[in-house]
Amino acid sequence: MLRLEGIRVTQGSFTLAADLTIPKGARVALMGASGSGKSTLLSTLSGFLWPDAGRITMAGVDVTKAPVADRPISILFQDGNLFPHLNVSDNIALGIAPNLRLTPEDRARVLEALAKVELDGMSDRMPSELSGGQQSRVALARMLLRDKPIALLDEPFSALDPGLRREMLGLVRTLCEETGQTLIMATHDLRDAEKLCDRVVLLDAGKVVLDAPLKQAIRDRNGPLEPWM
Ligand SMILES: Nc1ncnc2c1ncn2[C@@H]1O[C@H](COP(=O)(O)OP(=O)(O)OP(=O)(O)O)[C@@H](O)[C@H]1O
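Above: query sequence and adenosine-5'-triphosphate SMILES. Below: predicted holo structure tokens.
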């Protein structure tokens, strides 16, 4: 379970204020207009921003002031997920060994993660030798390998074409179902949200205006999600 209690985060003249409880294993679409605070919320959960007030707990542990590396999270952003000078297997291995000193067991886990995202045989390639979809898969493999209870995704696949995007969303969904990971994905696209998520949190000008099961929110034709339908 992930809980934000009385959180206030200030960015210039913008303030995000949130009280939220996200159940373990939920897959949440974080939606809202541009500038509503989605990235601010994800950065606060990641530990890149610290709140001025309030408390964040993850699985019962207070992480409000915990550094990024000490939080039970993995992060996937839209781009810049891979280091261009490291090959595929090293990019993935960074998820478990930041100094890249791997035990034989670590190496086996890297290969296993590669296989899960169907990139067997590509471990020696450089990111520049991969398509956009394959690069996304490498980043996803690293997220998998980290094996953290909470995954934070900030419009991770918006640069991909619709077919690849659908494929990646389906893959993430399968992986989350297998591992029971809790997921929060910022997205502008309700169709993408439907492919992966079972809950929706909608932000408007830094406030949570909807926190509900996604299917129920979509059924409510005149509700706050209406502009995204
Ligand atoms: N470093 C900063 N300094 C000042 N204001 C900032 C900073 N970063 C973000 N903001 C402001 O905070 C508000 C929320 O931005 P945020 O990036 O969280 O929105 P978002 O919902 O993720 O938008 P988008 O969908 O466009 O990515 C915006 O008004 C933005 O201008």
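The helical segments are 38-46, 88-93, 104-116, 132-146, 162-179, 190-196, 214-219.
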